[in-house]
Design brief:
This protein is α/β, with parallel strands linked by helices. The chain has helices at about 55-60, 85-90, 100-115, and strands at about 15-20, 25, 30, 35, 40-45, 70-75, 95-100, 120. The strands form two sheets. It has a five-stranded mixed beta sheet, with helices on both faces. A three-stranded antiparallel beta sheet has the order 1-2-3, with helices on one face. The radius of gyration is 14 Å and the shape is globular.
Length: about 120
């Protein structure tokens, strides 16, 4: 069995280059605070520590049309999202995957490189 290696190129200006305390480097630019990212845009996202709440998820409504899945980066550790937040995405037939922010950032880049219809809602670490 042979291993196939493929080089991935990110043509999207929203590839996540890095993250650190308080923000993210996306497409070569530092963004302070939480952010919502798709292949086409990045939008500041207001979310409280311990969130997101349903209202904070609903604030993303205009940005999620056409997405198949949203990677929910919930800070430094993985945890579950509130049932009403899950219901918000279920009502729109969009999968939501809660995970730690570092994992969400890495997974977003992989799916972005594959041309998938993905978004990442990222809380700071």
């Amino acid at each position: 069995m042979a291993i196939e290696l493929r080089e991935v190129h990110f043509d999207a200006p929203t590839a996540i280059d890095g993250y650190g305390p308080g923000g993210f480097r996306i497409g070569g630019h530092w963004i302070d605070g939480a952010v919502f990212v798709t292949s086409e845009r990045m939008t500041p996202w207001t979310v409280i520590p311990g969130g997101p709440t349903r209202a904070e998820a609903e604030a993303l409504n205009e940005h999620i049309t056409g997405l198949d899945v949203i990677l929910m980066g919930l800070g430094p550790d993985q945890r579950m999202i509130a049932p009403d937040v899950q219901a918000f995405f279920d009502e729109r037939n969009i999968g939501v995957e809660p995970m730690a922010t570092p994992a969400a950032a890495r997974t977003f880049n992989v799916l972005l490189g594959e041309g998938r219809r993905v978004g990442a809602a990222l809380m700071v670490v």
